[in-house]
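Why does residue order matter? Because the sequence determines the fold. Keep that principle in mind as you read this record.
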Amino acid sequence: MTLRTRLAVTSLGVLVPLAALLTVVADRARHRGMEDTVQRLVSLRLQDGGDVCGSGRVRPEDAPPPAPPGGPPGPAAVEFLGYDARFTPLAASAPALTDDQRDALAAGRTWSGTWPTPAGAGIALAFPAPTGRRCAFAVARLRPRPGVRRDQLAALAVSLVGVLGATWLAAGPVLTRLKALTAAVHASAQRRYAAPIVMGGRTDEITDLAAAFNAAGASVRAHLLDVEARGETLREFVANTTHDIAVPLSALQGHLAALESDAALGDQARRRVRHAVEEAHYLGSLLRNLGAAARLDGARAVERHPVDLVGLVERVVVRLGVLARAREVTLQHGVPAEAVTTITDLTLLEQALGNLVDNAIQYNRPGGHVAVVLDCDRARYTLTVLDDGPGIPADDLDALLTARSRGADARTRRPDGQGLGLAIVADAARLLDLTLAFDHPIDGGLRVTITGSLDA
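Structure:
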């Protein structure tokens, strides 16, 4: 419900009971006036010896003259009716007395009350006639002025319509300023509260509200700028630290790979070196994921350049080949003979593919297989990572695409992990306009495809 409608409904809720109360008060005042008129005229008739037994209608002396033909109705006249001792009317047109009137007259009392007429309730006064008159009892009646109730209701209706119209019109300028304030607040929010809210015109409560919005917007903007500055500082720190650690870590991985291939090592020493290779690879993967996550959270996450997809696949396979050998998993790849080039972000796409291959190796069994295949046509390319491991339960897949969510097997293998791998894949695919799909082949395992445009 709009504010203007609510004001109108509230006004009706107040005015309708008030109008009903005023109608009741006006009716009572009118009845009292009619009673006074009848009693005064009867007293005058009795004092001057006038006929009260059916002399027709008598107009009060202080009443204005009757209205001319066609004009508004004037004041009504008092009508006198006579009854004999048996309460029989002297005139055939006179109504019979009610039981209450008869009881009062029989007891020698005067009866006063109302009687129904087409124009509303009239006033009647029944009293014993003085001795020597041609009637034993008399009734003086006064009809209400014709149209009085209609005029009263018309006046109330006009008043209600006038008040509602005034309320409706008075709310117009206020609502216009409120709508302008709402639009200004939305515009300021879209500009990250950089533009102040300006309300022209008079100074009122709406202007004060706009000033309060400006103060709140300035506070929010200052907080946003502070958070963005802190976030940018943290992203730069993570990126720099990742780069600084990645160089010696790559050297360490090379030394461990060379040591693992040393024929002079015994079986126990070789197993220890293999575990060291896995830990070094995990540390490198974690650093690369942290760097990718920092870029994905940054204001400028995507940096598009021409990328050779064949070289990208071969780098990922070479880098993760050490881990595959340590896990006793066969890692194979297939690429076109010629270079396949697209415009994309090299770091994000390589990290996404690396995470998929890393997961396929990490969660496979000894003796398992992982294949990385690059297919393309004239317009699109497809990167497929296929393994024959246990796969991912369908119920866990949606959750694993969210940062800091990990599957049960991952939590068992590394309780301290952060669950960034597949979340980074999903975010990178979204930012690079790639299609990411998961399905389970009939013979088991998991197949993940990344599809993109060669014209990106």
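The first helix runs from residue 3 to 48.
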